[in-house]
């Protein structure tokens, strides 16, 4: 028996699936793929964090169910981080919760606060869970710009004016995935004032807070704004900061009502992350931060190799000031192909995997996202391969267009 399930019907085919299938097939055929596609840190988790995990896991008392809100020591460690980094005081009992990665936290909060037909304001392009977490929860999404400039507030005002019913929440993400835009404290102040006036919650994704390259202007937290905690909750993660993506430890902090709603949903769905992992995450937050600075410097060096090398190859890309991504406009003469076909072409002819911009929303078309999750030598190798591709662009584009035309006829 076949049945078209209601929530699945609201999810379009995953744009990245075609590129991922091609990548898997190429690797199965023995090809060396340089993978800039997924934002999956390749650096090892710092040794002192791994050592704490190994030590804690040997205690059988830690093998039992954990706490869905997160162990108290980890919530205190998160609160200490906010005090140290942003000069923000949090109540670890009421204003902080541990999530199984920030993605899980966002999705579960969407379930907690969204009713059928509720409208959520989401930047486009953005990380897929920012919109689809609410679509899965039967909400409706209205798009707003992602660039934090002087056009954002007028666009936000227009979105609220033309939304019926009134929007429930606004999603923000800075440093932004995929665009790498960074917001300043003045931008947050304006958005908080606007959302307070319109009774709109703010969900801020700050997963890339510590991956920045301007030491004089580290990314701020929205919770630094007075009264922000009346309406805002913020998600952070150990994944990028401490190279712990597979450990699945994230956090939410801020508005007590939103934290309570998330905790209620989580209490039905999970018992929290494995306790030794939480203990190790507390060690990450409380311990020496030299590893964070080292990680930041590695990503900056990789960024410079990538941006400089591609510029010399004829592909000008804006230099990101934060995150592990470059948001790259498709170069001429490849623009006619679109982001998905250009990504497939890079994979087929240069053995380089990137993410098509269309996968982050329709306004991501015309771009690809490049994640600097390969070492400098591999980045240079990728640049050489891309340069060779550009040198043969006419014949490759003609072949690609002809192949697509034939595929359409077959269908």
Structural notes for this entry:
The structure is a single chain. With 411 residues, this protein is α/β, with parallel strands linked by helices. It has two domains: 6-44 and 291-410, Aspartate Aminotransferase, domain 1 (Alpha-Beta Complex), CATH 3.90.1150.10; 62-286, 3-Layer(aba) Sandwich (Aspartate Aminotransferase, domain 2). It has 14 helices and twelve strands. It has helices at 6-9, 16-28, 47-57, 72-86, 102-113, 128-136, 152-161, 185-198, 256-269, 275-286, 290-312, 339-350, 376-391, 393-410, and strands spanning 34-35, 96-99, 119-123, 140-144, 169-173, 201-205, 232-237, 250-254, 325-329, 352-353, 355-356, 367-371. The protein has a seven-stranded mixed sheet, with helices on both faces. Strands 9-12-11 form a three-stranded antiparallel sheet. It starts with 5 loop residues before the first helix and ends with a helix.
């Amino acid at each position: 028996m076949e049945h078209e399930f209601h929530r699945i019907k609201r999810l379009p085919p995953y744009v990245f699936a075609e590129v991922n299938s091609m990548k898997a097939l190429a690797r199965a055929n023995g090809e060396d793929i340089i993978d800039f596609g997924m934002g999956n840190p390749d650096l090892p988790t710092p040794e002192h964090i791994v050592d704490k995990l190994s030590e804690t896991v040997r205690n059988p008392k830690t093998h039992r169910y954990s706490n869905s809100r997160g162990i108290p020591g980890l919530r205190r460690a998160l609160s200490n981080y906010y005090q140290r980094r942003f000069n923000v005081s949090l109540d670890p009992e009421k204003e902080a919760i541990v999530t199984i990665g920030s993605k899980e936290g966002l999705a579960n909060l969407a379930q907690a606060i969204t009713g059928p037909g509720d409208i959520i304001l989401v930047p486009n392009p953005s990380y897929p869970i920012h919109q689809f977490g609410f679509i899965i929860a039967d909400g409706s999404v209205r798009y707003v710009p992602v660039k934090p400039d002087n056009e954002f507030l007028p666009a936000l005002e227009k979105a609220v004016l033309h939304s019926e019913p009134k929007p429930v929440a606004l999603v923000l993400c800075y440093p932004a995935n995929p665009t790498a835009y960074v917001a300043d404290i003045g931008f947050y102040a304006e958005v908080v004032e606007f959302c307070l006036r319109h009774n709109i919650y703010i969900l801020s994704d700050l997963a890339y807070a510590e991956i920045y390259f301007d030491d004089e202007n580290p990314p701020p937290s929205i919770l630094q704004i007075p009264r922000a905690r009346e309406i805002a909750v913020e998600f952070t993660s150990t994944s990028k900061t401490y190279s712990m993506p597979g450990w699945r430890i994230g956090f939410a902090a801020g508005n007590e009502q939103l934290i309570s709603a998330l905790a209620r949903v989580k209490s039905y769905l999970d018992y929290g992350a494995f306790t030794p992992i939480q203990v190790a995450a507390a060690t990450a937050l409380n311990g020496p931060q030299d590893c964070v600075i080292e990680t930041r410097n590695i990503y900056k060096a990789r960024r410079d190799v990538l941006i400089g090398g591609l510029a010399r190859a004829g592909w000008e890309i804006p230099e990101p000031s934060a995150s592990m991504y470059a948001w790259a406009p498709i170069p001429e003469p490849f623009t006619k192909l679109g982001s998905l076909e250009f990504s497939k072409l890079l994979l087929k002819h240069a053995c380089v995997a990137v993410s098509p911009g269309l996968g982050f929303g329709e306004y991501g078309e015309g771009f690809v996202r490049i994640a600097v999750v390969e070492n400098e030598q591999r980045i240079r190798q990728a640049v050489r391969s891309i340069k060779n591709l550009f040198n043969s662009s006419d014949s490759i584009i003609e072949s690609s267009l002809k192949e697509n035309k034939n595929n359409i006829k077959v269908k």
